[in-house]
Amino acid sequence: MNSSSNKSVRELIQQNRQQKFSMKNVMERFMPIVLFLCAFVSVVTTIGIILTLVLETRHFFEVVSIKEFFGSTNWYPLNSQPEYGIWPLVVGTLEITVIAMLVAVPIGLTSAIYLSEYASERARRVLKPILEVLAGVPTIVFGFFALTFVTPLLVKLIPGLAIYNALSPGIVVGIMIIPMIASISEDAMSSVPKKIRDGALALGSTRLEVALKVVVPAALSGIIASIVLGMSRAIGETMIVTIAGGSNPTALVNPLEPVQTMTAYIVQVALGDAGFGTIEYYSIYAVGTLLFVFTLLMNLLANWITRRFREEY
Amino acid sequence: MDTKLTTKPAKEGVKTMNQPVAARQSVYRVNDLNLWYGDDHALKDVNLDIKQNEVTAIIGPSGCGKSTFIKTLNRMVELVPIVRTNGVIEYHGRNIFDKDYEVEELRTSVGMVFQQPNPFPKSIYDNIAYGPRVHGVKNKKILDEIVERSLRGAAIWDEVKDRLNENAYGLSGGQQQRLCIARCLAIEPDVILMDEPTSALDPISTLKVEELVQELKKDYSIIIVTHNMQQAARVSDKTAFFLNGEVVEFDQTDRIFSNPSDKRTEDYISGRFG
């Protein structure tokens, strides 16, 4: 109790309550509005992006038929008689994604199992932040890493490898995604309660059996979600594939040859001198819309999987 | 147990050291067991002789080391990194702390039921089949038999037989605990350790588990930690009273509860502390 004022705490509280227009009351009234407006900004942005994409894409499809867009396997936007078949870009994107996932899933999951089930508390405290630093490396740096380090290395191993190819950026995109898969999967595995591990150990299981047969299945929803989010990252990755992948849209699957992904095409046109209102200009919106649909579907899938396979414990 | 698929290791030839030959064979013989968590001396010179096909209850106030003790019997206590032990625990004549004694081997023949029901987040069937599968039983028909026999053994078959493929976490707490007992039976252990198995259960589920313990002692040796003295009196043949990491008294349960020889035991069971 404050002896100088000679008032009891109860009296002080009463006194404060009577001040109707105190700062506290004002804050209570207006903060929800401020908070709502802040949240609203991102909703408005999303709606704006979708509207822009859809409206500009409509201009594209006024010239190019949907049948050509999805039916043709030739993507020659710069020819005198341009062809706009999206498949080469989709194939390039998927090629990069598949290579990236082949790198990222095994390494990411084994890292997660190590961190969650084997690493000592001290090792985890050192390793996890390092892993997360990898996630913070700018993709432009990864791009040059692919072009100036990984590609020359691969050329030594695989004679005849083109300087621009799908393999090198694919691997590097995979490396970029490792921390994401490892970190989310590790969180999912670490949140499996200790009592469940104890139950398995008490049945005479080894640590590896506990990790693979109990913890991984229990954390499966988180693990699958991490993989799907990683894929959506790989699909949307731009800088690495633009720098190291070349610009050769081809529907033929050959990771040793140059490719072009959807994102790299958008960069190519955006950096070029395609004038406003030309069909080339609108084509990047069409590609952008498709890209948006791809990543949206992946995120919805990740959400659905997390709910569907949620293990109760 | 004529229904067993595997033969248990022979229990003959267990040497009786320094003690008169008893009617039943010893499962565990604990000699001068000491245990420390860091600097905390949690078990002090524990000596106990646990007999086959008996229910041994371990009672004592919170923090007396009873849970620590039971977890030492299958070396689960070693999951705490700062634990040190000293002394000998012979399980069928073999020191479980021997370097070449694989902890997985020990835990395969010494099952454990925990304080909180801890089924795996899998189907009821897979919960039971987990142990046999880990130990190499792959045949679906044999697994089906094991699952049914184990669930019957834990008196839960009738309640779950129509939903073996549902997640075990859909069961009530008491059912989950009996499922954990069934999971333990599936690998046909020799001893079942129960660490306050009913502390998270309601009275009716508790009663069911107690009845089950009575049923199981025909085939298994059971060591049960409980903070409920009535439970110890109801289910056990022998009772050990732990206090501050020491065994104060270890005797026939009826003697402990009717005519304890130590004043502290009497004070505890009459509710004067703890």
Automatic annotation (TrEMBL), chain A:
The cross-references to SUPFAM superfamilies, in alphabetical order and at most eight, read: MetI-like
Topology in the membrane?
Answer: Multi-pass membrane protein
Instruction: Kindly report the protein's main subcellular placement as a broad class.
Output: membrane
Q: Which Pfam families match?
A: BPD_transp_1
The alphabetized UniProt keywords are:
Cell membrane, Membrane, Phosphate transport, Transmembrane, Transmembrane helix, Transport
Q: Can you say what this protein is called?
A: Phosphate transport system permease protein
Which part of the chain is the ABC transmembrane type-1 domain?
90-302
Question: What does the record give as the function of this protein?
Answer: Part of the binding-protein-dependent transport system for phosphate; probably responsible for the translocation of the substrate across the membrane.
Q: What is the lineage of its organism?
A: Bacteria, Bacillati, Bacillota, Bacilli, Bacillales
Q: Cellular location of this protein?
A: Cell membrane; Membrane
Q: What family does the database annotate?
A: Belongs to the binding-protein-dependent transport system permease family. CysTW subfamily.
- Note the PROSITE patterns from the entry: ABC_TM1
Q: Which organism is it from?
A: Exiguobacterium undae
Q: Where are the transmembrane segments?
A: 30-55, 86-109, 130-155, 167-189, 210-229, 282-305
Q: Which InterPro entries does the annotation name?
A: MetI-like, MetI-like_sf, Phosphate_PstC
Q: Specify the superkingdom.
A: Bacteria
